[in-house]
Amino acid sequence: MFQQVKNYLWHLPKSYLFAALNAFPCRHLTLIAVTGTDGKTTTCNLIYEVLRRSGLKVGVLSTIGAKIQDRLLPIPPHMTSPDPSLVQKIFKEMLDENVTHVVVEVTAHALDQFRFSGCRFKIAGITNITHEHLDYFHNMNTYIKVKSQLFKLCDIAVLNRDDESFNTLITNTPAKIVTYSQKQKSDYTAKNIKITADQLSFDVNKVHLSTDSNYDYQVNNILLAFAICQQLSIDPAVFAKTIISFPEMKGRRELVANDLGITTIIDFAHTPAALETTLSSLKKNCRGRLIAIFGATGGRDQSKRPLMGKVVSRLADIGIVTADDTRNEQIADINEQIISGFDESQLSSQKFTYYNIPHRQDAFNLAISLAKSGDTVVACGKGHETTILHGTTEYPWSERAAFMTAFKLREVKNT
Q1: Phi and psi (nearest 5°) for 207?
Q2: What is the pLDDT at residue 190?
Q3: What is the pLDDT of residue 77?
Q4: DSSP class of residue 192?
Q5: Could you say which architecture CATH assigns to the domain 2-244?
Q6: Is the pLDDT of residue 58 over 90?
Q7: What number of other Cβ atoms are within 10 A of residue 169's Cβ?
Q8: What letter does residue 182 receive in the DSSP assignment?
Q9: Where are the domains of the chain?
Q10: Average pLDDT in the 11-18 region?
Q11: Mind giving me the DSSP string for 283-295?
Q12: For 261-393, where are the alpha helices, taking DSSP H only?
């Protein structure tokens, strides 16, 4: 109740105030929104890249930052949809630089707190809705209902027909409905899906799409981006050419090169569903063992922690439970909640082994010391972030630097 009062008496007027102070820049921009639990950042940046290569002057505002063409604009850490004071300032700066289209990542928190009030989106799409943020929204029905608010602020709604939220969203969406799917008849249905060791390909509406990002969960991200681009009348040939070499994004399936014969990857996966899709995709092409470094954020949804543990114990060979942004919780408590979800049958059959390593750098060091040639080590949760939050202090952090430190330590021990 307190949060609702705060939303209406503080967040809502503040949003309109900063929109007005910046002369409502969004009214002069074609805004494209992407929401969902997982895959938002990847989809946003793919759409951005396609529009840019189509010759449009385009900007993007997502978890990994804001960009005007290829110029980065910083946003605060741990913040996907910033405060309206910054959102409207960024929109104004984009408009001043003659940007015509802006791709925006929109979170449920941002919708609940009216951070985009005063904005009208030409198109809004959704990736999926899975278990997340229940510390704030309390249950999935409320979470879905809040997500659905976006589709009251847009002209065209692009919905995932395969997602469990579809029937709820479609009944609460006054916008024109466009659908995409892998399994059902829709406006954009993926057919002839093929995944090899180095390629993903499928057909959609007589267009053949092929990409070097060979993760099966990319099918939905690409489908949503394709559907949105088609609604903007973007040439399918430009889209197809763009994804051949999938646009690289910091902290999303980011490879870290080494001379050890180990595949080392940084990924932002931090929900049960994201871990499921990331680890299951990696498992298919892993020549050796799959080693997952992961943790859970403090001060956030505790109910997802055992679910994350269960997923990792089913799909990884080795799990290393470690610190994420602990905030004001004790790392021992967070890790024990994760461990409580581990599948007992996997443990008893020794198909899965785990280590509880509170310090994140120590977890990287252990993973690389355990890894053999052909193994895959994936660090989940932090992705692109440049700080790690313990208590109220932001400490400098880099997943890539953590891997490099671990590589050097192994080299020293082996000399």
Answers
A1: -110, 130
A2: 96
A3: 58
A4: E
A5: 3-Layer(aba) Sandwich (3.40)
A6: yes
A7: 21
A8: S
A9: 2-244, 254-413
A10: 82
A11: HHH-SS-EEEEE-
A12: 272-285, 305-315, 331-339, 344-348, 360-370
